[in-house]
Amino acid sequence: MTLARIAGTRAVRALAVGVVIFTASVVGIDSRLPESLAVLWPANAVLLAVLLRSRGAHRHLELWVAAAIGYVAADVSHGTATVPAVVLALANLSGVLMALLVCIRLGVAGVRDATPSTVVRLASGCVAGCAVGAVIGATVAVSYFGGTWSQGWLSWFACDLVNYASLLPVLLTVRRWRWTGVQGALTTAAMPWALLTVLLAVAWFMRDSGSAVAFTVPALVACALGGRMFATALMVMTSTVAMLALSVGVGASTAPAPVSTTTQIALALLALGPLVVAAATAERRRLLDELRQATTRDDLTGVLRRGEFSARAQELLADGDRTGAPSAFLMMDLDHFKLLNDRRGHRAGDQALVDFSAILRDVLGRAGSAERPGAIIGRVGGEEFAALLPGVTVERARSLAEEIRRRQEDRARSDFGPDGSTVSIGVSCCTGRRDLDELMMSADTSVYSAKRRGRNGVVVADTMLRAVGD
Predict the structure, then answer these.
(1) Catalytic (active-site) positions
(2) More confident residue, 352 or 290
(3) Considering 129, 196, 323, 337, which has the largest number of Cβ atoms within 10 A of its Cβ?
(4) pLDDT in tens, 248-275
(5) Where are the domains of the chain?
């Protein structure tokens, strides 16, 4: 990429950031109530999310300048004098910068695949950013709304914290900036969303913002226990925004009132809990998946271990009793594999096994039919592999086996020359339900026939094994 193109790309990105921050700031300014800061202030969370998601973006001065212009322009366009608008922008930017620096220092880049510790570290960065931004923001708050500096600091801190807590997780966990991601979050946690709707309706009906803050906890916990970070973050945001609207009295007969700092801090803490639970559940699920992978997959090649392969193959064969579909079985043995190990070393032998398993996945991944797609592959010995192909006829199995043989020969010769291991393949087929041991024995016999014929060949069993009872 040329220097001019890089500069142009960065300029466009900076312009986009400026427009987004201006728009988000306008939304926040429009949510201001008399004698109070904004109820909803998304601009800081948006800017921090952009900087965290774009590696190295915080080093680009033009992004910071564009964001500053966006902040100032939004305030000035709503009647704020230039000097206070600049001070407010500095307060927001300093808070975002501090939050960013702490997050980078603590190794936080997002919370999509986060652990509970990552969520807590992200929260720590947000708290630090709110505290620093409030140092400058308190001065403006006092000059506009009166009171002491400490009251202004606490007001700014609480307002910024609840907005970070409700908006930032959504911005960091969404996979793509598209409606499909939101739609997926809504459908994968349908019951918690239904429960949240009911609880929000009850809270709205009761109109008691003090006690209603915790009404949505059951729905948030129910969603979090599913381990879906984005769905939980989206639900937390929805709940928090609804509670803020309830707190200011939206829809009530009385005039809207500022949100108390106690309510804002309570909502921020309430948002943290479900996110930690969701992260813990997701981490537990990842660990279980890794454990399951370790116990069912061969460490070297990634195909199924012998025991797991046999169990899955037997299930598929038993299913043939219901469908009456044909099944093919391939038994494969690498030729002269011990010679490869002796001459080239065990590392070369391991690489040959890995390469062969990759060929199997590539070729057999296209096997099967619309009713019974795919194939299962296992390592059943040192250099022995097996594959069951449900829904595959004997002619198709022979063709696939020949493609495997040819590709293995090409790969072995190109990598190891005359020391490379070709493959001998035995094919057996059956219709309906069939015992796995009999299929394997028939294919194994065909492998020995291929060995006797000079290796590097495919032999199909002479007879088609019929279903039990035929």
Answers:
(1) 383
(2) 352
(3) 129
(4) 766 555 656 678 888 899 999 999 999 9
(5) 3-292, 306-460
